[in-house]
Amino acid sequence: MLRILQSQKLYQPFVSNRHALQRRTLASISNDLENAYDVVIIGGGVAGVTLACSLASSPSMRHNRIALVEAMDLTGVRNWEPQADNYSNRVVSLTPGSMGFFEKIGVTKHMALDRANGYRDMRVWDGVTGAKIHLDAALLNGSGHKVKENTIAYMVENLNLQSAALKRLDECRAQGSHIDLIQKVKVAEIEKKVEDTPPKEGLDLHDWPTVHLDNGRKLKARLLIGADGINSPVRSFAKIDSLGWDYDAQGVVATLKLDPARPNNTAWQRFLPTGPIAMLPLSEGYASMVWSTSPSTAKALKNVSSTDFCHLVNAAYRMSHVDLKYLYKQIDMNSFKSACDIAEEYNWRESVAKKSLNDQEILDREYSLPPQVVQVQEKSRASFPFKLRNSESYVADRVALVGDAAHATHPLAGQGMNQGILDVECLAQLLERGTVEGQDIGSIHLLRQYASERYVRNIMMISSCDKLHRLFSTDAAPVTWARSLGLNAVDNVGFLKAEIMKYAMGIEYTGEFRH
Fold first, then answer.
1. FAD-binding domain: which residues (predicted)?
2. Which of 36, 48, 467, 479 is the most exposed place for a label (fewest CB within 10 A)?
3. Strand pairing of 66-70 and 36-42?
């Protein structure tokens, strides 16, 4: 009870009549305060826990009552301990801008930073024409931006981020922040019954959403935030439509062990007609792979033998798309065994490619390509469908959406998570400002400023990724000629590549609310 009464941000603004309140029973007051929160966040994924950390870390927001609701048991995530030479296949590419935000809110000090691998070099090329672009963060030296260790991005496991954020929440709670983690319960229903007239005594909750949990508890939210994914119940409650479509493509992910004789500090991406394949460095000798391809090929890649899978990944970076198509057709879709020896086919084609080259040319060719994959981590292969979504609005009265609840994009640029973190940063800063100015943080008039700041920027990223996907998902001659010309032209213009990197690295825009 003492903790409840100390929550002045909730208690004081909504006592409409102090004497009337005193006449109410202690049980009635306790019940109102116990179940009423300034902010209720639905969803304990990276976006949800990051937003909770940001609010709990803020001097102006930390005394608000905040609830984070998650259906899963997060105890195992909080207690996650990294295992040497074993990586989760759920990995994100975080920009320096996103990492700077995590540092600002106190999350990075709880991360296993030896598992946050920064890389400065990225090589992208067209699998049909061979046109390429080489991005090196060293190009930004002298540009006026302080880029720590010339890092383009950091590869970090989702578990690493979630675990660190949950530990930071524990730390904030110990320091006096009023934040409750409500886990292992699902949202059964969300409703909002607006009374014609506010109550004459007690807390004025007449237009606050009510979150019904499946354990019978009801939470009242001055501001309800949906960080609950692409099928967001919060978005459905707010009657906000989500527009977009599903791609006829899936992403196959896996953790790869690479040739130890090769350095592993470069991200590699090759655009094939069926979609791009990306190999991103996790540590010396290990990389995370995302291979965008057709659903049928994705099914085959998940189920072929580990030896065949490794050869197919190597072939995807070294062979023509015609040869790759031939290899796919050799795989029986029932038994997932190949009609030919894939290893023999791969080695023969490699020998032909090197036949006319001298030793130096062979070495140059090898270092222009990713390290050979020698092994795939057991049980790390999985797939997921690609979707494009954008909500008609990111806000409604007393409701805001962040991350996948608001938008989803094709992962070819690796910016989905970073866009969600920018949502979180922008919304948190706006709520801090609103609190300092004494505004109602659930008011649609305040929340619209978050929507106007993030909506256009997210649309730009979603649209850019979609156009890139369509541009590279064809081998039609006129299109391949045009994109080849464009890639080579950009590769020869240093300042243009620098501008592309600044945008991709999150240093062109920090997520800060402008006012």
1. 37-308, 363-454
2. 467
3. parallel
